[in-house]
Amino acid sequence: MKGISFAIVFAVLMMVGHSAEAQRARPQGFGGEKFEANKKFGLGLELGAPTGLNGKLFLSPDNALDFGIGDLYHNYYVDNGAGLHLYADYLWHPFVLTKAEAFYLPFYIGVGGRFWSFDYNCRGCTGASAFGVRVPIGLSFDFNNVPLDIFIQVVPTLDFFRDYAGHDVYLDVDFSFGIRFWFS
User: Fold this and answer.
1) d(CA 175, CA 43)
2) How high is the pLDDT of residue 78?
3) For the domain with range 2-29+43-182, which CATH number is right: 2.40.160, 2.60.120, 3.40.50, 2.60.40?
4) pLDDT at 88
5) Distance between CA 49 and CA 52 in Å, rounded?
6) What is the pLDDT of residue 125?
7) Which pLDDT score is estimated for 29?
8) DSSP bridge partners of 98
9) Res 183: pLDDT
């Protein structure tokens, strides 16, 4: 399911990028141009780790608060570790990788935190939780002519577990992508 969703998003992006390229030539290489958002508040869906609802609020033209609620499922270091996941990150958009008439492609990096409450398989276990320090690194396809953006990110996270026999501290790397509708 995740692979199919990723393929669909990739195909749409390739079509949008191709039509934009036909309309206007892209700058060569990394332009280094500063990103300035033309939107204020958006809500959407995020798939991957985590899967759920995502929101973004620009506090200035190049700084934003990114937040989400959903389900985080990890089977590789927590047996059946599905559970509630809440996060909030402060993002910086230091430059635009490329731009076209149809969209901008800003790079972003941030720092934030997460809370993850989950159940896991063991006799007599009820549940556990983790607090994590997140460092999201990603790209945002910021469309100019429609109130949408699509993002893709990798998020190294240092988790500190409570009431979990498997780990006390663990370095996790999550991957997610999503789409948001912008209200303003």
Assistant:
1) 19
2) 55
3) 2.40.160
4) 98
5) 9
6) 63
7) 42
8) 105
9) 94
Interatomic CA distance for residues 111 and 65, integer angstroms: 10
Whole-number CA gyration radius for the chain: 18
DSSP string covering 101-169: SSEEEEEEEEEEEEEEEE---STT---EEEEEEE--EEEEEEESSSSEEEEEEEEEEEEEEES-SS-SE
Instruction: Determine the Cα–Cα distance for residues 45 and 104; give it in Å rounded to an integer.
Output: 20
Give the H or E element holding residue 87. Answer: strand 81-99
Residue 117, phi then psi, degrees to nearest 5 = -110, 125
Is there a contact between 172 and 159 (Cβ–Cβ < 8 Å)?
yes
> DSSP letter at 33?
B
Report domain extents, the chain: 2-29+43-182
- Residue ranges in the chain whose pLDDT is less than 50: 1-2, 7, 9, 11-12, 14-29, 76
| Predicted pLDDT at 28 | 39
pLDDT of residue 23: 36
Q: How far apart are CA 40 and CA 11, in angstroms?
A: 27
CA distance 59 to 65: 7
